[in-house]
Specification:
Strand content of chain B: under 5%
Number of domains of chain B: 1
Structural class of chain B: mainly alpha
Number of domains of chain A: 1
Order of helices and strands of chain A: HHEEHHHHHHHHHH
Low-confidence stretches of chain A: none
Number of strands of chain A: 2
Oligomer: heterodimer
Helix content of chain B: over 70%
Strand order of the largest sheet of chain A: 1-2
Mean pLDDT of chain A: 91
Shape of chain A: globular
Strand content of chain A: under 5%
Mean pLDDT of chain B: 90
Distance between the termini of chain B: 32 Å
Largest sheet of chain A: 2 strands, antiparallel
Largest sheet of chain B: none
Number of strands of chain B: 0
Amino acid sequence: MVERALVPYARLAWAWCRALAQYPVSLVLLTLAQLGATGVELLALLFVFGHVDALAGFTLHEALLVYGLTGTAFWLADLLMGSVERLGEHIRTGSFDTMLVRPVSPLVQLATDEFSPRRLGKNVPSAVALATALGALDIDWTPGRAAMLVVLVVSGTAICCALWVLGACVQFFVTEARELANALTYGGSALSEYPLAIYGHGVARAATFLVPLAFISYQPALYLLDRPDPLGMWPHLRYASPVVAVLLCALAAAAWRTGLRHYRSTGS
Amino acid sequence: MRVLLAVFACGLRRYSTYRVATLSSIVVNGVFGAVNAMVLLAVFDARPRINGYTAEDAVTQVFLAQSLIGITAIFGPPLDLGGRIRDGQVAMDLLRPVGFVRWWLAQDLGRAAFALLSRTAPTFAVGLALFDLALPADPLRWAALAAAVALAVLVGFGLRYLYALAGFWLMDTRGVNAVAWLAGPFCSGMVLPLVLFPDPVAAVLRTLPWAALVQVPAEILLGRTVLPGGAAGGLAYQAVWAALLLALGAALTARATRRVVVQGG
């Protein structure tokens, strides 16, 4: 695993970083633009809380915690795996065939293609939100809870990575469907930026059991805040994020293999 | 005129080729509309009236905004002009015996016309199916909305034309586009209706062209009189910005074309 995936991943990603560093001004400006893109979402959340004290029982700082967890997980996944959404383009232009004849996993090549460190800019607003929330909230910090915070962020990131890959796999079958995957990835992140409780039972259940978005930020936030779920869902769900992450990654891997096996070159 | 009509038709046909992509964008616009609408419903559940808006008004604006994405191209795509400036093909465009701005406008109106049928109408229908929208019974207000949408398309083109024209000076318009795609949706009231912004911020944004893309058409549909003259005032605001942007575009085109140096044979 380390030898076959992580080492080539790091090497390819680093090669792209060095390439982009050749245009430092462009790199800085585009990083700032990425920062702004997620910054406006945070601003919208702050504006909303200018009118109300709480949404479905969640105060500003609690909502910032949810936003920060989602943003951190989702944009880290975007940095690591976001490039896979261009699979359809690679299939259409034939460059995916080139990846298949190289002695590195095609998924690693796809994920590192045009790897761009400027996407880290998207992480800044959510990191600020997370730090603000963790500082302001009265969380009972035990060593277990502190360690769990790391586990939860890693699990959330893994869930988001799996969602990116699952979205990309659709393009093995319908090459034009890049935007359709965006409904799952960007749409999913938009949904989980706010506490799921505000959407009511139906949507929250779908976002827990159908597409497990709840395990990116909502259930982890309930765990950190040590509060009951206002929707009354099973209280042990908040410990399930790591399990869900492993299962979803396995599903994504299976989907990738199926897609790869199904793949026939465009023939040109 | 016949040439421009042909360009219009080509623009329309070109975008009608990507059927799955069109279907996907309806799904994406519908999903984002539903998420934004549910967030705002929770906000208005906590406080039923904010600056004169009710929950129904806010949800209506959300779906109008999502419906306008395709037609005003507020999130892109940019005009091909930017890329053609960079790779030099713009020289070919300049040789054509047709007005430069008109050529690009005709093409973009073709794109917008297709988007109106294939994206705007279905996305709004999704909103109608899922939520209670505040729709007027007065046919006059629907007519005003139609005019507002047409003017929004012109303002959208005017802005994107200027973004692309920046390529004559910057060569690479990706940076401009990156900033534009984040400023546009935020300043237009698409990410969040401007009525929910802090008053001083909203007051500034209401003087900028982006408000003509979403906020003004939404207020015309909702029958709110924010600008003097009500719907007529809103349409005048959009028309003034459309005229200003197109005039600026035309003036800058004249200056820019004097800068063109096409490398090599």
